[in-house]
Design a protein that fits this description.
Blueprint lengths: L11 E2 L2 E2 L17 H8 L7 E3 L18 E4 L10 E4 L8 E3 L7 H6 L16 H7 L1 E9 H7 L11 E2 L3 H9 L8 E5 L2 H6 L3 H7 L9 E2 L3 H9 L4 E4 L26 H4 L7 E3 L4 H10 L3 E6 L9 E2 L3 E4 L1
Length: 321
């Protein structure tokens, strides 16, 4: 695979650096998960310690961002020979999730380029999480435990607030851990938000789910975030906070929908760069183990739902050390 250009050297689409001409397909940066990198990642397994990264499907409760709670029906009577599960009103983004490329479009690309503004100009209905499911997501995972690092240096994250993480703090955290990031890695970022949420009362959880009430730490939005993440040349990023970026977006900076990336970098990361985004991963047990043994690398596996034309999926992710 040829060397990747820097963010500023990428070809432009609708005025933005874009990887469309590198990978005109449904996989984007997942193309970096080559067979050779999978084999190398498998060699990281030394102890056989397995860490599931899916949070409970029932959390957050109530769901955030106005998503409806689902109802779980178990069919059959108590004494029946068999049971089935039926999920009524289930939203694939109500808990741990991958944001697929159908989730977010870039309005400038929709205006200026062929297609509907989704990654690579591929039509809306031709995208789908099933593409990722049919290839699998396997490679070297690296944990950047920003939450633990910030505590150690005396700047703990404020989980109930829109506490900004600067994009350059990724490199600072990794350097402090003694961890090197390689091309094609899956970057896993812990803020500690999941653990904080689980410690909250029923009343606090209900308040967070109210319209426009959620405040949570995350990366500072803006093109610098897109530049930093692209220049890391990672295959994907997965975080434990609700939106990767800090929430809510800074509405005072908003101009028009062609510049939505200034407050919501999803509109560059997904449709322009083809970088998969993971949200609300449960990283607590993994982070404790990494802190204990000093190894922040592992075999990462994820099997999204084989849902034709799906927008998103639980990750069904494992970290194996």
């Amino acid at each position: 695979m040829r060397a990747l250009p820097s963010y500023r050297d990428l070809p432009r689409r609708a005025g933005f650096p874009a990887s469309w001409d590198l990978w005109g397909d449904e996989f984007g940066c997942l193309n970096l998960l080559t067979p050779e990198r999978v084999v190398a990642a498998a060699r990281l397994v030394q102890r056989g310690a397995v860490f599931p990264l899916n949070w409970s499907m029932g959390l957050p409760d109530p769901p955030l961002f106005g998503r409806e709670p689902f109802r779980h029906e178990v069919t059959g009577a108590e004494g029946s020979t068999s049971h089935d599960d039926v999920l009524h009103g289930w939203n694939t983004q109500s808990s741990s999730q991958w944001d697929g490329f159908r989730h977010i479009r870039n309005h400038a690309a929709a205006d200026d380029e062929t297609g509907t503004g989704h990654f690579a100009g591929i039509d809306d209905a031709d995208h789908g999480i099933h593409h990722w499911a049919q290839r699998g997501i396997v490679g070297r995972g690296v944990l950047a435990d920003i939450g633990r690092w910030r505590e150690r240096i005396g700047r703990p994250l404020r989980h109930a607030e829109t506490d900004l993480i600067e994009p350059d703090e990724i490199a600072e955290c990794l350097a402090d851990q003694g961890t090197e990031l390689h091309t094609g890695d899956v970057l896993v970022v812990r803020t500690g938000w999941v653990a904080w949420y689980e410690a909250q009362s029923v009343a606090t959880r209900a308040a967070l789910a109210e319209p426009n009430a959620l405040t949570a730490p995350g990366f500072r939005s803006g093109e610098h975030l897109a530049e930093v993440l692209w220049n890391l040349h990672i295959a994907a990023i997965a975080c434990d906070n609700p939106a990767v970026e800090a929430w809510p977006p800074d509405q005072s900076r908003r101009t028009d929908r062609r510049h939505l990336h200034d407050i919501f970098t999803h509109t560059l990361l997904l449709p322009m760069l083809g970088l998969p985004l993971g949200e609300m991963f449960d990283l607590e047990a993994l982070s404790v183990d990494c802190a204990d043994d000093g190894r922040f690398e592992f075999l990462f596996t994820s099997a999204p739902l084989n849902l034709p034309h799906g927008v998103a999926s639980p990750p069904n992710a494992l970290a194996i050390k």
